[in-house]
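PROTOCOL LOG
Step 1. Enter all chains and additional molecules of the complex.
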Amino acid sequence: MAGTNHRRPAVTGGPAIILVEPQLGENIGTTARAMLNCGLDDLRLVRPRDGWPSDKAIAAASGADTVLQKARLYPSVATAITGLIHVYAATTRDRGMVRREVTPRHAAAEMRAWLASGEACGVLIGPERTGLVNDDVALADTVLTVPLNPAFSSLNLAQAVLIIGYEWFVSGAAAPPEILHRGGSRRASKQELLNFFNHLEEELEENGFLRNRDSRPSMVRNLRSLFQRAQCTEQELRTLHGVITSFAGQRERRPRTKTFDSLRSLKPGKMLGLVDRADDE
Amino acid sequence: MAGTNHRRPAVTGGPAIILVEPQLGENIGTTARAMLNCGLDDLRLVRPRDGWPSDKAIAAASGADTVLQKARLYPSVATAITGLIHVYAATTRDRGMVRREVTPRHAAAEMRAWLASGEACGVLIGPERTGLVNDDVALADTVLTVPLNPAFSSLNLAQAVLIIGYEWFVSGAAAPPEILHRGGSRRASKQELLNFFNHLEEELEENGFLRNRDSRPSMVRNLRSLFQRAQCTEQELRTLHGVITSFAGQRERRPRTKTFDSLRSLKPGKMLGLVDRADDE
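Step 2. Run joint prediction.
Step 3. Record the structure below.
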């Protein structure tokens, strides 16, 4: 998905991501990218196998260089977690240890609260092939496990960090679950919608579509319901006015009003796809 | 994170993932892996740039071959969405179109409900460099946008699919937000805990740590509170009994009970890290 907006300030802060003995520079780079995606910038590296700094990491970071430049190198997990108050170990289920285990969502909510009160947090992530050893897990308060397909739950470093970071980001984002973009227009007022109903129904009256007096009330209700549900913008209603007028213009014109021609020769309900059943004329 | 469990059945089903003109075979492979991580297996490819099938896709799928083998090829977005009822377009914010936009979490909840009532769903994902074109977005009901750092929101294909799929998976998973692993032991009963309190306090009484009658009640309460909070297992309590006995064994022994030696020469509160303030003897 394209879409980085360089005009908006980067969101940074949040828990430290601590990669323990990462093997490939590429994975450190993609981890840095995933971190910046999620507004994280405290990357700590414990004994990266292929050394540090890493050109491969920079190439793979796709522009998240700031995270790599700030990354700090440590000789051990114990030194990397110095200064933290809460440490999670990202790992898969049950190691036979007595250990609290949480989901990324729960961890995110906890970390929000802790960081807000000044208590630094971090997440340990083990080497690509093996994951964390039990002695590293024992240095963490809590195991963090991503709920995934139990038959295929292996994630690479960057993907594990992306999910943990994503939950961190959305736990603090005020993004509403659903919004309606209006493309620069505004939502139509009820008066504008009623004007449109009047136009549509007047034309359908004129062309005989609503001639059946018994079915007419429910037909009108159904049409109105559809256009209510569409949450039209003011611009869209103007377009719809034009559509009706254009249908009317195709038929033999007989002057009735300046704007609204009659639609006698068409089956507009069918053409507009508004009704299941269109009367034949 | 290592941890695929081949003994457990794969979770499959869920919405179709429709890659529109994906450029790199590798990205199709990593997308398949992310799909299987999340229990998704309906992959649809619209005009993959480098052809299909793809050895690079297989190499990058890290074992998610089943998803690649089932993948279907389509000449257009329109043909790829045939048979679907609900289509999301994964894209970044506002294209100047009038369009409903939802988060991955909201989409997951919607799709759960729709799929449960037999209404097939799919998600369109555009090419790596450009994302979906507006004409493709116009074929979708709804825009699906991953909330991310607005200054750095670009995701690769597999990562976009991973987050969408992760939300899908967790929306149907009964994973509790927090569990406590017990390493094969069971949670200690209150009787066992009280026995431990008795042992500890008896020794602390014996060695003089609790000799201050004024502070004793709160000291005992604080110690008990700490061990309550630790939610000890039966095995751990046995270990703690042993720890106390071992402290007692370091001192000049004087026979008192068979199991519990006295702790007169130590400051056990300090040594065990149990209290903030240890009395000097």
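Step 4. Note key features.
Chain A touches chain B through 72 residues (CB under 8 Å).
The mean pLDDT of chain A is 83.
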